[in-house]
């Protein structure tokens, strides 16, 4: 199993551009989440999903959209990138309550 | 806002010594988890302790939970250079089991 995969690993955007961060898992997990991690900080929840077709907001959802059309995929869309969105983004999945499996992260810089 | 607060922010010890990290939180929880993050990598789950448990062990890890003080500690015994990493606590509670709230982490350095 590949586990949780994320693409791209690195991305540089200009202010106002849009892009999609991809996340996929092959463990048939119901739950998937997106977090951002800023320097010296813990992770903050952006959006999460408890199953295909079901998503909800986390702590810092503004400027981001998600959808969950399949169990495997959970893309995160930046609608109009801003320098404040410069961060490392992590996707995670879990079968239920408990251990979350994390992807390797996407390092995003917005100029 | 961050619920978990970790102490210390950084810890440097000699290989073979024990390392203790603390986590405090503000609201009632269902579970508390500890994760490790090596530099530039994703997080790896270490251990989960439920709100009705007081202590849990896994290999060289020992976790305690005191719900009356809203605090937890992670003890790593006989530390190794490979334990060098950042350690985060994460809690879930009435906001929903899927809505984990992470602390800011403790940066642990093991000196050979």
* Rough outline of chain A: globular
User: Beta-sheet strand percentage of chain A?
Assistant: over 45%
Counted by DSSP, the helix tally of chain A is: 0
Summarize the helix and strand pattern of chain B as letters. EEEEEEEEEEE
Q: Largest inter-chain interface?
A: A-B, 27 and 25 residues
Number of strands of chain A: 11
Distance between the termini of chain B: 37 Å
Q: Major sheet of chain A, described briefly?
A: 7 strands, mixed
Number of helices of chain B: 0
Query: What integer is the average pLDDT of chain B?
Result: 92
Percent of residues of chain B in helical segments? under 10%
Report how far the terminal alpha carbons of chain A are from each other: 36 Å
**Assembly context of the chains:** heterodimer
What does it look like?
The complex is a heterodimer of chains A (about 110) and B (about 110). Chain A is mostly beta strands and about 110 residues long. Chain A is built from no helices and 11 strands. In chain A, the strands form 2 sheets. In chain A, strands 2, 4, 5, 6, 9, 10 and 11 form a 7-stranded mixed beta sheet that branches. Chain A has a 4-stranded antiparallel beta sheet with strand order 1-3-8-7, with no helix packed on it. Chain B has about 110 residues and is mostly beta strands. Helices cover about 0% and strands about 60% of the residues of chain B. Chain B is built from no helices and 11 strands. In chain B, the strands form 2 sheets. In chain B, strands 2, 4, 5, 9, 10 and 11 form a 6-stranded mixed beta sheet that branches. Chain B is globular, with a radius of gyration of 13 Å. The mean pLDDT of chain B is about 90. The interface of A and B includes residues 33, 44 and 102 of A.
């Amino acid at each position: 199993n590949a586990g949780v995969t994320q693409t791209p690993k690195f991305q540089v955007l200009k202010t106002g551009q849009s892009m999609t961060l991809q996340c996929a898992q092959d463990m048939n997990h119901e739950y998937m989440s997106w977090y951002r991690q800023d320097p010296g900080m813990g992770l903050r929840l952006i959006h999460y999903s408890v199953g295909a077709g079901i998503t909800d907001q986390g702590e810092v959802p503004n400027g981001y959209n998600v959808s969950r059309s399949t169990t495997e995929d959970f893309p995160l869309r930046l609608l109009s990138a801003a320098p404040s969105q410069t961060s490392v983004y992590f996707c995670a999945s879990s079968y239920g309550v408990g251990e979350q499996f994390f992807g390797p992260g996407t390092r995003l810089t917005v100029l | 806002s961050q619920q978990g607060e970790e102490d210390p922010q950084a810890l440097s010890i000699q290989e073979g010594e024990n390392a203790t990290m603390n986590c405090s939180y503000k609201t009632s929880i269902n579970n508390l988890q500890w994760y490790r993050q090596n530099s530039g990598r994703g997080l790896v789950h270490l251990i989960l302790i439920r709100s009705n448990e007081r202590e849990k062990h896994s290999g060289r890890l020992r976790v305690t939970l005191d719900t009356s003080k809203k605090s937890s500690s992670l003890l790593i015994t006989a530390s190794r250079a490979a334990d060098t990493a950042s350690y985060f606590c994460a809690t879930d509670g009435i906001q929903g089991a899927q809505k984990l709230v992470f602390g800011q982490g403790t940066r642990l350095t093991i000196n050979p």
